[in-house]
Amino acid sequence: MILEKINKPNDIKKLDPIEYNQLAYEIRQFLIENISKTGGHLASNLGVVELTMALHIVFNLPQDKLIWDVGHQSYTHKILTGRKDLFGGLRKFGGMSGFPKRNESDYDAFDTGHSSTSISAGLGYACARDVRKQHYDVISVIGDGALTGGMAYEALNNASRVKGSFIIVLNDNTMSISKNVGGVSEMLSNIRSSDSYYDLKDSVANTLYKLPNGDKLVESIKKKKSNLKQIIFPGQMFESMGISYLGPVNGHDIDKLIKIFRIAKRIDKPVLVHVVTQKGHGYRPAERNPSKFHGIAPFDIKTGELLKKSDKPTYSDVFSDEICELAKNDDKIAAITAAMPDGTGLAKFARWFPERFYDVGIAEEHAVTFSAGLAAGGLKPVFAVYSSFLQRAFDQILHDVCIQQLHVVFAIDRAGLVGSDGETHQGIFDLSFLNCIPNMTIFAPKDGEELKLGLRFGLQDYNGPFAIRYPRGEVTDAFDDFETMPVVYGKAEMIHKGSEIALVAVGSMVETACEVRKILKEKGLDVTVVNERFIKPIDAGMIHKLSFDHKLIVTMEENVGLGGFGDTVCQYADDSQLDVKVLNIALPDDYVEHGNVSILKKEEGIDAAGVADRVLSFYTNI
């Protein structure tokens, strides 16, 4: 086993080149075997094995700085930097992160988790290097999916200012999470199929050599930087921006990769190396369905099927079915995604209503302003997006949607703790950053049925910016026997009527509140549970009413406390001089690491037992 020789950083440099292909095979088998047990990002990592190996062979890490865009494809990098034995704890609480982390290794030059950032970060590194008169290479790896993000072009626009080496590796696999869309994808497709350019160039050169003084004519063309290339070659977009272009090169041919990186290393200016890879390479199920294996739970290696299957629908499933049902009877409803039709549940909408479905690529800022334009034009756009990705478009929400009070519905998936992806993906800030924007309405359903009612209300009964947030995972059945009341703007729902203590909860925390009620009831306490529903505006009348017959109001939310629902209730209680104590139960003003959601809730004190303890402690001191 060649992989047994890889135990610490730079061990790969000690290998004989004849061992490279075998090592690539063994790394793939290692990844498949381990991720089948822990879950994780498989297809993206299988696609960059040779690419990562070549980077580690050619460059001198950690002196040279290797920056991964998104970072979900850094597993081979972690293997080659001495973290092979940590894969048993991949993405588990207290274990190794699935993304690059500077506090995890000196070989991780920059923390990543979101898209389109690596060129900007690498440019910053290169400029800092030049100012400090240091000498090292900077390599930014970016996928063709991430290249659809506007931030990548902002960085490319500034890259030409670098006077020394700056290498951009374009990992082109035609995929982001789902298949890429748009002009960038088409341009790269043209480059990938540009063998005809090279054939034509060779043919012209051979013909010229046969003419009198043909050799001088060929040399003249070369000195003019190959005018033929300027005219024909699609990669000239990068050349025109002052960035040298190399490629395309087969991303699974390690010898060619090593050669092209050594060439790039000698170029004393920004250079883009175009590497063509196959997502899921080396594992047939992932090659056939790279979207499924982008991020996957534990699975059976032989079949590729998940080990744990459930017939229960997820919140994304419920959203998917409901928006399709509503769109059947309303031809103004349109759906927008930022490269995630499968993850957000819009794949079904795309099949049923292709003329009203828009995948804008990894470009959340554009998606929001595009949605604003659709609304201004008379449609009812629904932008389905993960909570952690929506924060990338804060200015567009404020400036382009809310100031104009446009009817855009934000379907915010993965709100709250999401687990294994860690700090960059926890959806724990949306209540706070949306709560501060005038004209925004925020709704949080307690279960799947209320998600349907809330979406229907936002599209049919309301005319303005409307955000509906719901968690990751399966829909709760805790309220199946409860008769859900109709949605009325700004009104909460009484779940259990009691006295003394009122638990006023948001979204997923309503179920937790019911569990807390049971614990406190065993302690002899009579407890009210309220489903707040609307975070903005809060049901001020309900808060006022609760203050008359309760000593303590407890707010509960799966969001950071600062600027969230609890802060709003405290402000209202203070302004109205209510004779009641308020205790906020929320996540701390901090980032939450990766791990199982139930473990994270316990660690952060927002599980039922933790909340009950905090309520009892506070109540006994009133």
Automatic annotation (TrEMBL):
Residues 313-478 form the Transketolase-like pyrimidine-binding domain. Its cofactor is thiamine diphosphate; Mg(2+). One of its GO terms (molecular function) is 1-deoxy-D-xylulose-5-phosphate synthase activity. It catalyses: D-glyceraldehyde 3-phosphate + pyruvate + H(+) = 1-deoxy-D-xylulose 5-phosphate + CO2. Thiamine diphosphate binds at H72, G113, H114, S115, G145, A146, N173, Y283, E364. It comes from Lachnospira intestinalis. It holds the Pfam family Transket_pyr. It comes from the Bacteria. Binds 1 thiamine pyrophosphate per subunit. Binds 1 Mg(2+) ion per subunit. Keywords: Isoprene biosynthesis, Magnesium, Metal-binding, Thiamine biosynthesis, Thiamine pyrophosphate, Transferase. Its EC number is 2.2.1.7. Mg(2+) binds at D144, N173. This is 1-deoxy-D-xylulose-5-phosphate synthase.
